[in-house]
Amino acid sequence: MSSVLTTALLETVTIRTVTIPSCQMHQGFYRKPVKLRWTCPRCGQPRGKPVPTRSYDGSRCLIVDGWVNPCGHVDYYDDVRREAQGNGLN
Ligand SMILES: [Zn+2]
């Protein structure tokens, strides 16, 4: 039982570095690495596995990291940028 709890605790503090568009109109060029606590900000469950993903800013495409959270909550890059600014890791 205690080892299960320990594992759960370790998972909640997992920190990952992912690459995201540095602004909404990235022009196919502007991206940056950010450190994030790898948990969903809405429910605290672990986020999904990052995979190379195309982001379109309306005209240009940029390869960044994207992920699908198993809990079903969607992380938008706008929210992720705000989180990265405020989480004390970047
Ligand atoms: Zn969630």
Concise structural overview:
With 90 residues, the protein is α+β, with helices and mostly antiparallel strands.
Helices and strands, with pairings:
Layout: H1 2-12, E1 15-21, E2 31-37, E3 51-56, E4 61-66, H2 77-86
Antiparallel strand pairs: 1-2, 3-4
The protein binds zinc ion.
Kindly state the mean pLDDT as a whole number? 91
Overall structural class, as computed from helix and strand content, comes to alpha+beta
Cα-to-Cα separation, first versus last residue: 35 Å
The overall number of domains is 1
Q: Give the strand content.
A: 25-35%
Largest sheet: 2 strands, antiparallel
General form: globular
Number of strands: 4
Fraction of helical residues: 10-25%
Overall radius of gyration: 14 Å
Strand neighbour order, sheet with most strands = 1-2
**Bound small-molecule species:** zinc ion
What's the helix-strand series?
Answer: HEEEEH
**Uncertain residue segments:** none
The number of distinct helices, counting runs of at least 4 residues, comes to 2
